[in-house]
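Budget justification note: compute hours in this period were largely spent on complex prediction jobs such as the one shown. Inputs:
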Amino acid sequence: MPKFKKKKSGDLPAISTASLPDIVFMLLFFFMVATVMRDSTLMVTNALPAADQVQKLDKKDRIMYIYAGKPSSRYKDKYGTQARIQLNDKFATVDEVGAFILAERASKRQELQNVLTTALKVDGETKMGLVTDIKQELRKVNALKINYTTRVGAYNQNLN
Amino acid sequence: MPRRGAPEVNAGSMADIAFLLLIFFLVTTTIETDSGINRKLPPMEEVEDPPIIRERNIFTVLINKYNQLLVEEELVDLKDLRASAIAFLDNGGGQNEEACDYCQGEKDPASSDNPQKAIISLKNDRETSYKVYIAVQNELVAAYNTLRDREFQRLYPMEQMTFTEANKRYSDPRTSPEDKEALKPKLDEVKNLFPQKLSEAEPNKSS
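Corresponding output:
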């Protein structure tokens, strides 16, 4: 009789879930490391042009970002389809670029204030007129180091 | 008495496996960094009596509003721009003290005297497309890089790398300070042989 009883209790043992926290933590750490924090949401289309003679932009603390391009589809009704500048989280006009750079510069540490770079993330379809205006504004506030941010690719990808 | 049913799997080593994977990903993932073409804008203040530059030392590149390229008053295709910029920079047509002993160009007296004097002037229209402008910038930087690579390999063959690789290595934070110290004079030397003189025209006030 005891033989039959043994058989009944011989079902599959429950799988130990003791390691589940480890797996979850692993995933958490992985995503923590691999995600790039984007400090402002993009409100403009931002298909960067391609270039292959590029230099890397590391040291994120000494970079100021200026975005430009046509307003993305959500904002089209409100802001039209002309290319606009985006500073932080809002659309801006050309005149506001100077003030923005000065404010950004003041918010950085003293020793970094002279080595700041302005990264221009401009959509490929933008006309040069807007870019020239931005560059003139940057010259006015003496922010002379700029970087035309591009994606890596051959130059002829730009020609269609 | 024979045992029935599967024995419980030992899960004690699961944590080790998890940490192994975690460390593997930690080491192999790189946070994506932006890259682009670095440029320096000229300061705002007007230069009093600008230096006189000979016409033959200026290489004019003009992009019109239809994104066409006019190089030295001739309509040129973008794919030929790099070669003609190299030919201009490497020409070395100067005489006596203006001669260039490392240039391998045609020594055409109608083109640049030496790379120190050679200036590339870039002008664009307000209606020019930004991506074409970037493509042109890219080609001009590529022309300088090609020549610098050549000179770097000629002067420092034992380094076993090109100027661009050496420059990348120099700006890499993982390179040791001693290596950087050793690379810097070599890079400066080559940069001095082919200085990047790329001037952009002031935007037109009118029109």
